[in-house]
Amino acid sequence: MDVAWATDLARRLLADPLPRRWAHSLGVSAQAERLAPIMGGDAELLQCAAVLHDIGYSPAIAETGFHPLDGARYLRDVEQADPRICNLVAHHSCALIEAEERSLADELSGEFRLEEPHLVEALVYCDMTTTPDGKVTTAEERLQEIFSRYGPEHLVTRSIERAAPQILAASRSISEKLAALGG
């Protein structure tokens, strides 16, 4: 795994067409870097997945309109990326719940497996404690931001409402692990 490769790829796909999404991705990557002391040998894997998690929004690769699936497929089919990175991108931040709303759950789960719980939890934490502009926030504030951005009837709002207990539990768990290390 090469964080420099992952960062450069995300920059090429996001920086010009979607600068705010790029800023968010850099912020998520910075959060992943902060988690290195609790991630052990998976620290670089997490940081790669963190910076790449939203590449599926790029107009250059978007196909289904569901960014976790589009990004993971691009990484697998075009970049021949490590399958674990692809799996993490595909399933980031409870994506299977939104996939159900979009009738894409069978495709997502059939093509990409759910990674180990500590990795899934860490990526949820990194994504859901980073604002759209790349700043650190709380998971609770991030959830409220998503609800207000999409509105009450949007499928993203419905998905995030369903995922909120998992998101908040992941945030608490990672925060506790960081606190135990004095971070």
Q: How would you describe this protein?
A:
- The protein has 183 residues and is mainly alpha-helical.
- The chain is 68% helix and 0% strand.
- The protein contains eleven helices and no strands.
- It has helices at 3-14, 19-34, 36-39, 43-52, 67-77, 83-90, 95-101, 105-111, 117-128, 139-150, 155-180.
- Helix 2 (19-34) runs antiparallel to helix 4 (43-52).
- The longest helix has 26 residues, at 155-180.
- It is globular.
- The two termini are 25 Å apart.
- The relative contact order is 0.14.
Rg (C-alpha, Å): 15 Å
Strand content: under 5%
* Class computed from helices, strands and strand pairing: mainly alpha
Helix content: 55-70%
Count the beta strands: 0
- The number of helices is 11
Mean pLDDT, nearest integer?
96
Distance between the termini: 25 Å
- Give the ordered list of helices and strands: HHHHHHHHHHH
Shape by Cα distribution: globular
Query: Which regions have little confidence, pLDDT < 50, spanning 5+ residues?
Result: none
Largest sheet, if any?
none
